[in-house]
Amino acid sequence: MIRNLARGQQAFTSNVFLVTGDRTVLVDVGNEFDVVSAVEEHADDIDAVAVTHTHYDHVENLDSVVDAFDVPVYGYDTDQDGVEHAIADDETIQLGDHGYRALHTPGHKNDHLCFYSADAGVLFAGDLVFANGSFGRTDLEEGNRDLLVDSIQRVLSVVDEDLQEMHTGHGPSVTDAPYQDIELALQAAKF
User: Fold this and answer.
1) Residue 109 has what pLDDT?
2) Which end of the chain is more exposed for a tag (fewer CB within 10 A), N or C?
3) E strands, the chain, where?
4) What is the pTM of this model?
């Protein structure tokens, strides 16, 4: 099961996805809300944290999560504060009951990852793309529009057209033809 723990929070935070199953994992930990209590409402414990990228709104709660649950933190770049274990491009990481392929997708930030499971029909898109064809900002440090376009094209080449769910770093998840939202984001990002 995938649950957005940041839903309804009155704070500037990323979405925080609790993925339960054989390996219970938080995808991103958010910012400015009590994510530990939110986890404890739905799970006794977690096994790991996987970060899509290290912008503060996605990782500010890392210390409290690590202190509470004593879990390893996975991300693309171990030179970033809090990221202990590197996930290489194309490496598989287990989230819940499924293996997810990590896709290095820079453009919004150099250490950005998306996580995709063909078996589950799920993409965790981070801040690469959003609902309704929106895409991640490229005006921040490490932002690069051309790289972002390349990353969106890569995601389109990897995910199935019948993708079931896309969980994004901000805003609503997409459960109705998310592949089309990725295509729209590519067109928008090219302009």
Assistant:
1) 98
2) C
3) 2-4, 17-19, 25-27, 48-50, 73-75, 85-86, 92-95, 98-104, 113-117, 122-126, 165-168
4) 0.97
